[in-house]
Write a structure and sequence with these properties.
single chain; 424 residues; alpha+beta; 4 domains; two-stranded antiparallel ribbon; extended; GrpII_Intron_Splice-Mob/Def; Domain X domain-containing protein; Domain_X
Protein backbone atom coordinates (compact mmCIF):
# COMPACT_ATOMS: atom_id res chain seq x y z
CA UNK A 1 0.00 0.00 0.00
CA UNK A 2 1.08 3.56 -0.68
CA UNK A 3 1.98 5.71 2.32
CA UNK A 4 -0.42 8.41 3.44
CA UNK A 5 0.28 11.93 2.12
CA UNK A 6 2.06 14.29 4.44
CA UNK A 7 -0.98 16.46 5.17
CA UNK A 8 -2.95 13.39 6.28
CA UNK A 9 -0.11 12.12 8.46
CA UNK A 10 0.01 15.53 10.10
CA UNK A 11 -3.73 15.59 10.72
CA UNK A 12 -3.55 12.12 12.28
CA UNK A 13 -1.25 13.74 14.83
CA UNK A 14 -4.24 15.83 15.96
CA UNK A 15 -6.31 12.76 16.78
CA UNK A 16 -8.03 13.14 20.18
CA UNK A 17 -6.92 11.19 23.20
CA UNK A 18 -10.01 8.99 22.92
CA UNK A 19 -8.79 7.69 19.54
CA UNK A 20 -5.55 6.44 21.13
CA UNK A 21 -7.40 4.22 23.62
CA UNK A 22 -9.73 2.33 21.32
CA UNK A 23 -10.59 -1.24 22.40
CA UNK A 24 -8.07 -3.83 21.25
CA UNK A 25 -9.59 -6.43 18.92
CA UNK A 26 -6.45 -8.44 18.24
CA UNK A 27 -5.26 -8.38 14.63
CA UNK A 28 -8.22 -6.35 13.32
CA UNK A 29 -6.27 -3.09 13.18
CA UNK A 30 -8.27 -0.25 11.66
CA UNK A 31 -11.46 -2.32 11.89
CA UNK A 32 -11.55 -1.79 15.67
CA UNK A 33 -13.76 1.35 15.56
CA UNK A 34 -16.15 -0.37 13.15
CA UNK A 35 -16.39 -3.45 15.37
CA UNK A 36 -17.00 -1.19 18.36
CA UNK A 37 -19.94 0.41 16.53
CA UNK A 38 -21.35 -3.02 15.67
CA UNK A 39 -21.03 -4.39 19.21
CA UNK A 40 -22.28 -1.23 20.94
CA UNK A 41 -25.30 -0.73 18.69
CA UNK A 42 -27.42 -2.43 21.34
CA UNK A 43 -26.05 0.01 23.90
CA UNK A 44 -27.08 2.93 21.67
CA UNK A 45 -30.64 1.61 21.44
CA UNK A 46 -30.75 1.16 25.22
CA UNK A 47 -29.67 4.79 25.66
CA UNK A 48 -32.41 5.92 23.26
CA UNK A 49 -34.96 4.28 25.55
CA UNK A 50 -33.46 6.05 28.57
CA UNK A 51 -33.61 9.39 26.76
CA UNK A 52 -37.35 8.95 26.25
CA UNK A 53 -37.81 7.72 29.81
CA UNK A 54 -36.11 10.71 31.48
CA UNK A 55 -37.60 13.36 29.20
CA UNK A 56 -39.93 15.61 31.22
CA UNK A 57 -40.87 18.75 29.26
CA UNK A 58 -41.93 22.02 30.81
CA UNK A 59 -44.57 24.36 29.40
CA UNK A 60 -42.63 27.55 30.04
CA UNK A 61 -39.22 26.23 28.99
CA UNK A 62 -38.22 26.76 25.36
CA UNK A 63 -36.27 23.49 25.34
CA UNK A 64 -39.46 21.48 25.43
CA UNK A 65 -43.18 21.63 25.84
CA UNK A 66 -46.23 19.47 25.41
CA UNK A 67 -45.59 16.76 22.83
CA UNK A 68 -42.04 18.01 22.44
CA UNK A 69 -43.15 21.34 20.87
CA UNK A 70 -40.93 24.26 21.79
CA UNK A 71 -42.65 27.02 23.70
CA UNK A 72 -41.74 30.27 25.39
CA UNK A 73 -39.14 32.60 23.92
CA UNK A 74 -38.29 30.89 20.63
CA UNK A 75 -35.79 33.62 19.71
CA UNK A 76 -33.38 31.86 22.09
CA UNK A 77 -33.89 28.21 21.10
CA UNK A 78 -31.11 26.98 23.40
CA UNK A 79 -31.95 29.20 26.37
CA UNK A 80 -32.37 27.25 29.60
CA UNK A 81 -33.48 28.76 32.92
CA UNK A 82 -30.75 28.42 35.53
CA UNK A 83 -33.06 27.10 38.26
CA UNK A 84 -36.64 26.65 39.30
CA UNK A 85 -39.44 24.22 38.51
CA UNK A 86 -39.75 25.53 34.93
CA UNK A 87 -36.67 23.65 33.79
CA UNK A 88 -37.10 20.85 31.29
CA UNK A 89 -35.43 17.59 32.24
CA UNK A 90 -33.77 15.66 29.45
CA UNK A 91 -30.81 13.43 28.65
CA UNK A 92 -28.32 13.75 25.78
CA UNK A 93 -25.94 11.04 24.62
CA UNK A 94 -22.96 10.88 22.26
CA UNK A 95 -20.45 8.08 21.62
CA UNK A 96 -17.08 7.87 19.85
CA UNK A 97 -15.83 4.29 19.54
CA UNK A 98 -15.73 2.92 23.08
CA UNK A 99 -16.01 6.36 24.72
CA UNK A 100 -19.33 8.01 25.46
CA UNK A 101 -20.62 11.14 27.15
CA UNK A 102 -24.04 11.48 28.78
CA UNK A 103 -25.46 14.92 29.52
CA UNK A 104 -28.24 15.22 32.08
CA UNK A 105 -30.27 18.40 32.35
CA UNK A 106 -31.77 18.00 35.77
CA UNK A 107 -30.79 17.12 39.35
CA UNK A 108 -27.70 15.10 40.20
CA UNK A 109 -29.96 12.27 41.39
CA UNK A 110 -31.03 11.60 37.78
CA UNK A 111 -27.39 11.26 36.73
CA UNK A 112 -26.75 8.83 39.59
CA UNK A 113 -29.76 6.69 38.59
CA UNK A 114 -28.63 6.52 34.97
CA UNK A 115 -25.10 5.57 36.05
CA UNK A 116 -26.40 2.74 38.24
CA UNK A 117 -28.60 1.37 35.45
CA UNK A 118 -25.75 1.66 32.94
CA UNK A 119 -23.39 -0.36 35.16
CA UNK A 120 -26.00 -3.11 35.53
CA UNK A 121 -26.70 -3.19 31.78
CA UNK A 122 -23.01 -3.48 30.82
CA UNK A 123 -22.48 -6.21 33.41
CA UNK A 124 -25.44 -8.31 32.26
CA UNK A 125 -25.15 -7.78 28.50
CA UNK A 126 -21.42 -7.29 27.77
CA UNK A 127 -19.86 -8.86 30.91
CA UNK A 128 -17.97 -5.58 31.46
CA UNK A 129 -17.35 -4.56 35.06
CA UNK A 130 -17.69 -0.78 35.46
CA UNK A 131 -17.56 1.23 38.66
CA UNK A 132 -18.28 4.76 39.78
CA UNK A 133 -14.65 5.82 39.28
CA UNK A 134 -14.74 4.94 35.58
CA UNK A 135 -18.04 6.85 35.22
CA UNK A 136 -17.51 10.11 37.13
CA UNK A 137 -20.28 12.69 37.43
CA UNK A 138 -19.04 16.25 36.90
CA UNK A 139 -20.85 19.54 36.69
CA UNK A 140 -20.68 21.38 33.40
CA UNK A 141 -19.37 24.54 35.08
CA UNK A 142 -15.99 22.80 35.51
CA UNK A 143 -15.67 22.23 31.78
CA UNK A 144 -15.74 18.71 30.34
CA UNK A 145 -13.10 17.64 27.81
CA UNK A 146 -14.38 15.33 25.06
CA UNK A 147 -12.73 14.85 21.64
CA UNK A 148 -10.42 17.82 22.27
CA UNK A 149 -13.44 20.09 22.77
CA UNK A 150 -14.39 21.67 26.09
CA UNK A 151 -18.10 21.56 26.90
CA UNK A 152 -19.19 24.22 29.37
CA UNK A 153 -22.01 26.67 29.90
CA UNK A 154 -22.18 30.40 29.37
CA UNK A 155 -24.44 32.61 31.48
CA UNK A 156 -26.55 35.09 29.51
CA UNK A 157 -28.99 37.81 30.54
CA UNK A 158 -31.49 38.09 27.68
CA UNK A 159 -34.57 40.28 27.56
CA UNK A 160 -37.60 38.00 27.55
CA UNK A 161 -40.74 39.30 25.90
CA UNK A 162 -44.04 37.50 26.14
CA UNK A 163 -47.73 38.25 25.85
CA UNK A 164 -49.68 38.25 29.10
CA UNK A 165 -53.41 37.93 29.60
CA UNK A 166 -55.26 40.73 27.90
CA UNK A 167 -52.76 41.00 25.07
CA UNK A 168 -50.28 43.06 27.05
CA UNK A 169 -46.62 42.59 26.04
CA UNK A 170 -44.29 42.24 29.03
CA UNK A 171 -40.50 42.57 28.85
CA UNK A 172 -38.23 41.47 31.65
CA UNK A 173 -34.63 40.51 32.16
CA UNK A 174 -33.93 36.82 32.45
CA UNK A 175 -30.96 34.75 33.54
CA UNK A 176 -30.12 31.60 31.68
CA UNK A 177 -27.36 29.48 30.24
CA UNK A 178 -26.22 28.47 26.78
CA UNK A 179 -24.23 25.36 25.98
CA UNK A 180 -20.75 26.37 24.86
CA UNK A 181 -18.47 24.06 22.85
CA UNK A 182 -14.94 25.42 22.49
CA UNK A 183 -11.84 23.89 20.98
CA UNK A 184 -8.96 23.37 23.39
CA UNK A 185 -6.16 25.71 22.30
CA UNK A 186 -3.77 24.10 24.80
CA UNK A 187 -4.37 20.69 23.25
CA UNK A 188 -3.77 22.17 19.79
CA UNK A 189 -0.43 23.66 20.90
CA UNK A 190 0.52 20.36 22.52
CA UNK A 191 -0.15 18.46 19.29
CA UNK A 192 1.82 20.97 17.21
CA UNK A 193 4.74 20.62 19.61
CA UNK A 194 4.57 16.84 19.34
CA UNK A 195 4.71 17.13 15.54
CA UNK A 196 7.74 19.47 15.86
CA UNK A 197 5.96 22.41 14.24
CA UNK A 198 6.74 24.76 17.13
CA UNK A 199 8.54 25.08 20.43
CA UNK A 200 7.82 27.07 23.55
CA UNK A 201 4.75 27.31 25.75
CA UNK A 202 3.97 30.94 26.48
CA UNK A 203 5.07 32.32 23.11
CA UNK A 204 4.94 29.49 20.54
CA UNK A 205 7.70 29.83 17.96
CA UNK A 206 7.12 28.02 14.61
CA UNK A 207 9.83 25.62 13.50
CA UNK A 208 10.78 24.87 9.86
CA UNK A 209 9.07 21.85 8.32
CA UNK A 210 12.15 20.15 6.88
CA UNK A 211 10.21 17.07 5.80
CA UNK A 212 9.00 19.11 2.80
CA UNK A 213 12.48 20.44 1.97
CA UNK A 214 12.82 18.62 -1.37
CA UNK A 215 9.23 19.32 -2.49
CA UNK A 216 8.32 22.22 -4.75
CA UNK A 217 6.69 25.35 -3.41
CA UNK A 218 3.42 24.55 -5.21
CA UNK A 219 3.31 21.00 -3.80
CA UNK A 220 4.16 22.16 -0.28
CA UNK A 221 1.47 24.84 -0.25
CA UNK A 222 -1.05 22.37 -1.64
CA UNK A 223 -0.32 19.86 1.14
CA UNK A 224 -0.67 22.48 3.86
CA UNK A 225 -3.90 23.84 2.38
CA UNK A 226 -5.40 20.36 2.61
CA UNK A 227 -4.34 20.20 6.25
CA UNK A 228 -5.87 23.61 7.01
CA UNK A 229 -9.12 22.70 5.26
CA UNK A 230 -9.37 19.51 7.32
CA UNK A 231 -8.62 21.42 10.54
CA UNK A 232 -11.33 23.95 9.75
CA UNK A 233 -13.78 21.09 9.28
CA UNK A 234 -12.62 19.37 12.49
CA UNK A 235 -13.37 22.51 14.54
CA UNK A 236 -16.60 23.20 12.66
CA UNK A 237 -18.87 23.29 15.73
CA UNK A 238 -16.48 25.10 18.10
CA UNK A 239 -17.41 28.59 19.28
CA UNK A 240 -13.80 29.69 18.87
CA UNK A 241 -13.43 28.16 15.41
CA UNK A 242 -12.05 31.36 13.88
CA UNK A 243 -9.43 31.78 16.60
CA UNK A 244 -8.15 28.19 16.56
CA UNK A 245 -8.03 27.81 12.76
CA UNK A 246 -6.31 31.18 12.38
CA UNK A 247 -3.75 30.08 14.99
CA UNK A 248 -3.12 26.86 13.03
CA UNK A 249 -2.66 28.91 9.87
CA UNK A 250 -0.18 31.18 11.66
CA UNK A 251 1.91 28.23 12.87
CA UNK A 252 1.96 26.52 9.46
CA UNK A 253 2.68 29.76 7.61
CA UNK A 254 5.58 30.55 9.93
CA UNK A 255 6.92 27.02 9.59
CA UNK A 256 6.85 27.21 5.78
CA UNK A 257 8.42 30.67 5.79
CA UNK A 258 11.38 29.36 7.80
CA UNK A 259 11.61 26.36 5.48
CA UNK A 260 11.71 28.58 2.37
CA UNK A 261 14.23 30.89 4.02
CA UNK A 262 16.58 27.95 4.57
CA UNK A 263 15.88 26.41 1.16
CA UNK A 264 16.34 29.57 -0.91
CA UNK A 265 18.95 31.16 1.40
CA UNK A 266 16.88 34.22 2.27
CA UNK A 267 18.04 34.26 5.93
CA UNK A 268 14.77 35.48 7.50
CA UNK A 269 11.01 35.10 7.34
CA UNK A 270 10.62 38.81 6.59
CA UNK A 271 12.42 38.43 3.26
CA UNK A 272 10.30 35.42 2.41
CA UNK A 273 7.09 37.39 3.09
CA UNK A 274 8.45 40.32 1.09
CA UNK A 275 9.04 38.18 -2.00
CA UNK A 276 6.30 35.55 -1.68
CA UNK A 277 3.68 37.86 -0.06
CA UNK A 278 1.70 37.13 3.09
CA UNK A 279 0.11 33.89 1.83
CA UNK A 280 3.31 32.62 0.12
CA UNK A 281 1.64 32.58 -3.30
CA UNK A 282 4.44 34.27 -5.27
CA UNK A 283 7.18 31.98 -6.56
CA UNK A 284 10.58 31.83 -4.90
CA UNK A 285 13.83 30.92 -6.66
CA UNK A 286 17.54 30.61 -5.92
CA UNK A 287 19.79 33.67 -5.83
CA UNK A 288 21.79 32.42 -8.81
CA UNK A 289 18.91 33.13 -11.16
CA UNK A 290 20.13 30.66 -13.76
CA UNK A 291 16.63 29.30 -14.42
CA UNK A 292 14.24 31.11 -16.81
CA UNK A 293 11.61 33.47 -15.46
CA UNK A 294 8.74 31.79 -13.66
CA UNK A 295 6.10 33.54 -15.79
CA UNK A 296 7.58 32.09 -18.98
CA UNK A 297 7.68 28.60 -17.51
CA UNK A 298 4.11 28.98 -16.28
CA UNK A 299 2.98 30.19 -19.72
CA UNK A 300 4.59 27.16 -21.36
CA UNK A 301 3.00 24.81 -18.83
CA UNK A 302 6.32 23.55 -17.50
CA UNK A 303 5.62 24.39 -13.84
CA UNK A 304 2.59 24.34 -11.59
CA UNK A 305 0.90 27.48 -10.34
CA UNK A 306 1.50 28.29 -6.67
CA UNK A 307 -1.64 28.49 -4.53
CA UNK A 308 -1.48 30.73 -1.50
CA UNK A 309 -2.10 29.46 2.00
CA UNK A 310 -5.66 29.65 3.27
CA UNK A 311 -7.00 31.43 6.35
CA UNK A 312 -4.10 33.90 6.64
CA UNK A 313 -6.59 36.36 8.15
CA UNK A 314 -9.26 35.64 10.73
CA UNK A 315 -11.98 37.06 8.49
CA UNK A 316 -11.29 34.28 5.95
CA UNK A 317 -12.12 31.52 8.45
CA UNK A 318 -15.77 30.39 8.21
CA UNK A 319 -18.08 30.98 11.14
CA UNK A 320 -19.06 28.19 13.56
CA UNK A 321 -21.88 25.97 12.41
CA UNK A 322 -24.82 26.28 14.80
CA UNK A 323 -27.31 24.46 12.58
CA UNK A 324 -29.08 21.87 14.77
CA UNK A 325 -29.27 18.30 13.59
CA UNK A 326 -32.81 17.27 12.58
CA UNK A 327 -34.66 14.69 14.57
CA UNK A 328 -33.82 11.15 13.52
CA UNK A 329 -30.58 12.28 11.88
CA UNK A 330 -28.33 9.52 10.55
CA UNK A 331 -24.86 9.78 8.98
CA UNK A 332 -24.60 9.20 5.24
CA UNK A 333 -22.70 5.91 5.50
CA UNK A 334 -25.42 4.47 7.76
CA UNK A 335 -28.10 5.49 5.25
CA UNK A 336 -26.23 3.72 2.46
CA UNK A 337 -25.85 0.56 4.54
CA UNK A 338 -29.53 0.53 5.47
CA UNK A 339 -30.51 1.06 1.84
CA UNK A 340 -28.24 -1.77 0.73
CA UNK A 341 -29.71 -4.12 3.35
CA UNK A 342 -33.20 -3.16 2.25
CA UNK A 343 -32.44 -3.74 -1.45
CA UNK A 344 -31.11 -7.24 -0.78
CA UNK A 345 -34.44 -8.25 0.74
CA UNK A 346 -36.56 -10.33 -1.67
CA UNK A 347 -39.76 -8.75 -0.41
CA UNK A 348 -38.45 -5.30 -1.26
CA UNK A 349 -37.67 -6.39 -4.81
CA UNK A 350 -41.18 -7.78 -5.27
CA UNK A 351 -42.69 -4.54 -3.97
CA UNK A 352 -40.60 -2.52 -6.42
CA UNK A 353 -41.60 -4.71 -9.36
CA UNK A 354 -45.30 -4.49 -8.51
CA UNK A 355 -45.02 -0.72 -8.16
CA UNK A 356 -43.32 -0.48 -11.58
CA UNK A 357 -46.08 -2.56 -13.19
CA UNK A 358 -48.79 -0.40 -11.63
CA UNK A 359 -47.15 2.79 -12.87
CA UNK A 360 -46.73 1.36 -16.35
CA UNK A 361 -42.96 1.74 -16.27
CA UNK A 362 -40.22 -0.63 -17.31
CA UNK A 363 -36.85 -1.35 -15.74
CA UNK A 364 -33.62 -0.97 -17.75
CA UNK A 365 -32.97 -4.73 -17.46
CA UNK A 366 -36.38 -5.57 -18.94
CA UNK A 367 -35.87 -3.00 -21.70
CA UNK A 368 -32.55 -4.59 -22.72
CA UNK A 369 -34.15 -8.05 -22.64
CA UNK A 370 -36.90 -6.86 -24.98
CA UNK A 371 -34.36 -5.43 -27.43
CA UNK A 372 -32.36 -8.67 -27.47
CA UNK A 373 -35.46 -10.82 -27.92
CA UNK A 374 -36.75 -8.58 -30.70
CA UNK A 375 -33.43 -8.85 -32.52
CA UNK A 376 -33.39 -12.62 -32.24
CA UNK A 377 -36.99 -12.87 -33.38
CA UNK A 378 -36.91 -10.50 -36.37
CA UNK A 379 -33.30 -10.75 -37.59
CA UNK A 380 -32.58 -12.37 -41.05
CA UNK A 381 -30.53 -15.57 -40.97
CA UNK A 382 -27.13 -14.90 -42.49
CA UNK A 383 -24.57 -17.52 -43.58
CA UNK A 384 -21.76 -18.20 -41.20
CA UNK A 385 -18.48 -16.41 -41.61
CA UNK A 386 -16.61 -19.51 -42.92
CA UNK A 387 -19.21 -20.28 -45.61
CA UNK A 388 -19.31 -16.70 -46.80
CA UNK A 389 -15.51 -16.53 -47.03
CA UNK A 390 -15.38 -19.73 -49.12
CA UNK A 391 -18.13 -18.48 -51.44
CA UNK A 392 -16.37 -15.16 -51.98
CA UNK A 393 -13.07 -16.89 -52.78
CA UNK A 394 -14.79 -19.16 -55.33
CA UNK A 395 -16.47 -16.20 -57.02
CA UNK A 396 -13.17 -14.28 -57.15
CA UNK A 397 -11.38 -17.34 -58.64
CA UNK A 398 -14.07 -17.80 -61.30
CA UNK A 399 -13.93 -14.17 -62.36
CA UNK A 400 -10.14 -14.31 -62.68
CA UNK A 401 -10.36 -17.47 -64.93
CA UNK A 402 -12.91 -15.89 -67.26
CA UNK A 403 -10.83 -12.77 -67.59
CA UNK A 404 -7.74 -14.83 -68.45
CA UNK A 405 -9.59 -16.79 -71.15
CA UNK A 406 -10.88 -13.62 -72.73
CA UNK A 407 -7.37 -12.22 -72.91
CA UNK A 408 -6.03 -15.41 -74.60
CA UNK A 409 -8.79 -15.45 -77.20
CA UNK A 410 -8.48 -11.76 -78.04
CA UNK A 411 -4.70 -11.80 -78.73
CA UNK A 412 -4.21 -15.29 -80.31
CA UNK A 413 -4.05 -14.07 -84.07
CA UNK A 414 -1.09 -11.84 -83.47
CA UNK A 415 1.04 -14.75 -82.30
CA UNK A 416 0.89 -16.76 -85.65
CA UNK A 417 -1.46 -19.56 -84.55
CA UNK A 418 -3.60 -20.95 -87.36
CA UNK A 419 -7.16 -19.77 -87.18
CA UNK A 420 -10.05 -21.96 -88.36
CA UNK A 421 -11.50 -20.87 -91.76
CA UNK A 422 -14.84 -21.65 -93.23
CA UNK A 423 -14.58 -24.18 -96.06
CA UNK A 424 -16.71 -23.74 -99.14
Amino acid sequence: PKPDPYWLQTFFGFAPEEALTQPDWGHCGVLSPLLANVCLDEFDKWMDEKIEEFYKPSKSDVVGGEDGIEQGNTSWPEFVPTSGPDKTRKVDYIRFGGHFLIGVRGPRADAAVIRKQLIEFCDQRFRIKLDNESLPIEHITKGIMFLDHVLCRRVVYPTLRYTATGGKIISEKGVGTLLSVTASLKQCIRQFRKLEFLKGDREPDPQPCFRMFHATQAHTNLQMNKLLTTMAEWYRYADNRKKVVNFCSYIIRGSLAKLYAAKYKLRSRAKVYKIASRNLSRPLKDKKGQSPEYTNLLRMGLVDSVDGLQYTRMSMVPDPDYTPLPSGWRPDHEKFLLEYIKLTDQQTLEEQRSCIREEGLITPQDHISMLVWSYKKNAVLLPSSKESDVQESIEDLGSDTDELNNKELGHGGHQGFPQPTEMS
